[in-house]
Design brief:
The chain is mainly α. Helices cover about 75% and strands about 0% of the residues. It is built from nine helices and no strands. α2 runs antiparallel to α3 and α3 crosses α4. About 20% of the residues are buried.
Length: about 160
């Protein structure tokens, strides 16, 4: 049995396009855990994270000949994020904003920081579009205008507890 442990991602992609099952197995061994962690971090449930990663790898195998993948890990990571958002939409479950904000704060000096920022902004826009008008206004005042909960309560003539909720 040939081992592909020492092959580069580029070499594995060439072998994958040719239908080499062992190359696919090596890609899976190499990346499943970090992709699972990424999916679990965003979804918070093991079953959903496993489903997302499984779907990504199934898709990779099924479309191995018709995808022009230049960089394997960024491609897989993007595919996981796409599947997560697809699952959000399917379950009508939206991401919380605190965790992505912390993650972006930690990754500003990384090459993928603009991607994370765009992803976060798309998630916020999706969430805002589904919120009642008053909640959108509170969100705008709090996170765009940077007003305190007391100032928002005074401006909208509602209780501070309503703003916090």
């Amino acid at each position: 049995m040939i081992t592909y442990v020492h092959h580069t991602d580029s070499e594995l992609l060439i072998l994958l396009r040719d239908g080499t099952v062992e190359a696919f197995d090596e890609i899976y061994r190499r990346y499943w855990k970090s992709l699972f962690v990424e999916a679990h971090k965003r979804l918070g449930e093991i079953e959903y994270a496993e489903e997302v990663v499984q779907d990504v790898f199934i898709n990779l195998w099924m479309h191995r000949t018709d995808r022009d993948i230049q960089q394997l890990y960024p491609y897989l990571l993007t595919a996981v994020r796409y599947q997560v958002f697809t699952l959000y939409k399917k379950l009508r479950k939206l991401p919380c904003f605190e965790e992505p904000l912390e993650h972006i704060g930690l990754s500003q000096d990384k090459a993928d920081a603009p991607f994370f920022m765009n992803e976060l902004l798309e998630g916020i826009q999706l969430w805002l579009a589904q919120q009642p008008e008053k909640r959108r206004e509170i969100f705008r005042l709090r996170y765009i205008e940077q007003l305190s909960t007391r100032e928002i309560a005074d401006e909208l003539n509602i209780t501070q507890k309503t703003v916090q909720n």
